[in-house]
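quick one before i forget lol
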Amino acid sequence: MKACFIHVPKTGGNNIEAIASRQYGPEDMFKLEKNSFRYASLSNDCEGYRHDRMNSSVKFLFGHFNFGFHWKLLHPIFFFSMVRDPLERAISDHYFNFQHRMDALAKQFQKNKYPLAYTLLNRHLIHQNMMADYFCGVSESGHKTYLDVVNNYISIMDLTESYDESLLIIAKSLGWTVPLYIRTNVTAKKPDRGDDRLGLTPDVVAAFKANNIHDYALYDDAKRRFGELVRGEGDALVRATAAFKDVLAEMFEAQRRKPTRMFSSVSGRRQPLPRIRPDARNMDIVNNYLLSSPPIPAKPCITGCVDRVDHNGVDGWVRDLNSDAQAAVDIVVGGEMMARVAGEGYRGDVKAAHGSHGYHGFSYSFPRPLPYTRPCVIEVRVAGTLVCLPGGRRVWGWH
């Protein structure tokens, strides 16, 4: 099963990529990078992702990309990601523009020296609801799909604020060794939240929250899921986290004495770690947790395609990449549920492409043909969600 890390900017993802570089060989990793916030543009530029490479023996896919490319995958996949308090993420992004980036936006920041309060409320400088946009899936449906995507496709949604616990859960689920890391890509010269230099008045914070309601909804949902996950792991995770933090304290001290260069996911160069001799008891506690069972199971990964949508009905196919369990679709017309149809018809083309049993086809005919004179939206959704299959949303009738 492939692992896929959706890296939302300024959530601590660079360390995860660096840790993965020590778990896999360069030939086992494939970086996806697309500065797009909508599935539609991702879908229209599929060749840019070299599907033959994604569907080869690659074990780890990662990068700044939107959810949705899985429609082109042929193999089982384990999605995971990490989110952060929206205001903290935006503050970090603001100061990061003064520090690292050399694109047009960074040059604009460095030239005009925008104050933080101005940046947070300017839609042209900080992408509003960025985290939710990464999981939107289908552009036509807007923001309403992001919670469905997260809860139905993303197996682990970790929190930057609980970084070490998150890393241990990821490592356990993917069969990694101890996920040691050093601090990289940390935004320098960023004042503390309590520092008056931030200039964040209650009015500014309230306005920011109003502009980013979807990010806050996503973050609250992620906190709920993560809390349930931590409680399920019990005392074993608590002990492992304490031991892990002790080991990392030695690592950070060694890094302070001899700084290490940043990991480069582009060149595939592995990030070297300081040489330390961690306490054997701490390492045993961490390893015992990582080898304990059961790991977090992968959520279903429903994929498919709609071949026909018209006034008479719909045809297509749908399947779960992660199991042979039968998948289904919901047929929705004008916002009203018409039927739930199972993907059980034989499709030789799907069998040839996916190597499955091929019984994934579906077909549905409307009780009466839809009139041209009554415009409506026809949607073919993954059953139980608001996520439309590719080609599964069409405005029908004169409008």
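fyi The first helix runs from residue 13 to 21.
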